[in-house]
Amino acid sequence: MTKSKFWDAIIVGGGVIGSSIAYYMSARGMKVVLIDRDRFGQQASIAAAGMLAAQAEINEAGPFFDLARTSRALFPPLARDLQALTGMDIGFTRKGLLRVGITSADVEALQQTIAFQHSVGEQAEWLSTEQVIQREPEISRELRGAMLVEGDGQVDAPVLSIAYAKAAVALGADIKEFTEVRSLLIEHGRIAGVITSEEVLRSDRVIIASGIWSGALLEQVRLNCPIYPVKGECFSVLTDKPLISSTIFSHGCYLVPKKGGRIIVGATSKLHSYDRKVTLGGISTLLEAAKKLVPSIVNAEWEKAWSGLRPQTLDGLPYLGEHETYKGLYVAAGHYRNGILLSPITGKCVADWAEGKSKKHLSLEPYRIHRHQHISQEKVGFPT
Ligand SMILES: Cc1cc2nc3c(=O)[nH]c(=O)nc-3n(C[C@H](O)[C@H](O)[C@H](O)COP(=O)(O)OP(=O)(O)OC[C@H]3O[C@@H](n4cnc5c(N)ncnc54)[C@H](O)[C@@H]3O)c2cc1C
Predict the structure, then answer these.
(1) Domain C-terminal end among 261, 278, 313
(2) Looking at the whole model, is its pTM more than 0.90?
(3) How many percent of the chain have pLDDT more than 70?
(4) Mean of pLDDT values over 332-359
(5) Are 114 and 128 found together in one domain?
(6) Ligand 1 center to residue 333 CA distance, Å?
(7) Which helix (H) or strand (E) holds 105?
(8) Which of 154, 198, 262, 291 sits a CA distance of 20 to 30 A from 359?
């Protein structure tokens, strides 16, 4: 059956990226439909720790740093707007992020990062071991100081993802869960909609925001956007009194304090794994690393463990843009370990494109969706 209803855009994928796009487009008065083959927000987006680590994760100047910082700045008004529209609290807080130095090489690298942050006008501060302990009394005495970043806040990632979708509905979006998009509908060399497991949906604008599964749909239009999964495992614990107040970050391990004494400990990294099984090996590695940072975590109550598949690309940058030939077909995917952080700017950019506007102060050139078009995957290969 061909559905006659005509939307301003069909958004394929109801993770944090697709839901953000649905929200920002709906906020501009566009009528969109958001589709997921599962329930919304149950893949990579539900697994995230929710850090908005624009400074802690990126330490070189360039368009990606600018994109991350611009996106981070959107969170305070976003938290207010989503609360007003949905009554949901996305848990936005800025209680500081401590990137801990354990070896002398760490200390040197962190001092360089601080100098870089200052050179681009950002706050970052070196704390001695004593200062770190004063701020976080439960932290290990073995560390050699830490970089404190005040501006990198955090949110509750699963709540954010759902809040975007609910806000979009409040603003008039249609939603379809448990509906798989099987292929794109192309008519006269243009995008004309999608064919789902249920029906044909029509629109002259289709946005592919399907995380690690985006590439499969894009093959139909011979667009090569290689995205591969990097599995991450996490666990959470509960404490009667909060053990830590700042996010604590080290090699391969972070502890993110949440409301009510809850702490998320993440995250492992396993390339090319499509399964979401949580392994004992993964959890014990994380626990060992967490104990080195905050020894008293062993007294916390176990809550749960989970995993998710980060959508990684060949150069670590997301694909953002419109197809050169099939006008109206957009891609917003491959946000790897920063999809929560980058969700508002991605939603805003897509809404701008739909309105024919461009972000003059931001260079989106590095994210061109055709940049890997002529790269043979066999030749370059996915990282191993
Ligand atoms: C352990 C872990 C920790 C992380 N921590 C952070 C963090 O602290 N900060 C941060 O910024 N980022 C973090 N990330 C990264 C972040 O979670 C991802 O970048 C982000 O969730 C990607 O969102 P997405 O919407 O692109 O993908 P997804 O959330 O995977 O959503 C894609 C959706 O598309 C749907 N779909 C796919 N194919 C189809 C189809 N054919 N038809 C219909 N629907 C389809 C899927 O069902 C899915 O719901 C973390 C990730 C992991 C795994």
Answers:
(1) 313
(2) yes
(3) 96
(4) 95
(5) yes
(6) 9
(7) helix 104-119
(8) 154
Spatial distance between the Cα atoms of 77 and 245, rounded to a whole number of angstroms? 23
Whether residue 267 is predicted with pLDDT greater than 60 in this model: the reply is yes
Task: Give the domain extent around 268.
Answer: 93-152+228-313
Q: Are residues 171 and 203 in the same domain?
A: yes
Q: Which atom, in ligand 1's list, is nearest to the CA of 307?
A: 1
The predicted structure's pLDDT at residue 382: 60
267: DSSP letter:
-
* Residue 172, pLDDT above cutoff 60: yes
Query: Which residues, in sequence order, are bridge partners of residue 301?
Result: 238
Same domain, 364 and 288: no
In this structure, the residues whose C-beta lies within 6 A of any atom of ligand 1 are 12-18, 35-38, 42-45, 47-51, 180-181, 209-211, 213, 217, 232, 234, 266-267, 308, 310-311, 333, 335-341
Instruction: List Cα–Cα distances, 169 to 7, 61, 313, in angstroms.
Output: 14, 37, 31
State in Å: Cα 240 to ligand 1 middle: 31
Q: Which of 190, 166, 186 is nearest to 23 (CA)?
A: 166
- Do 237 and 139 belong to one domain? yes
pLDDT at 359 over 90: no
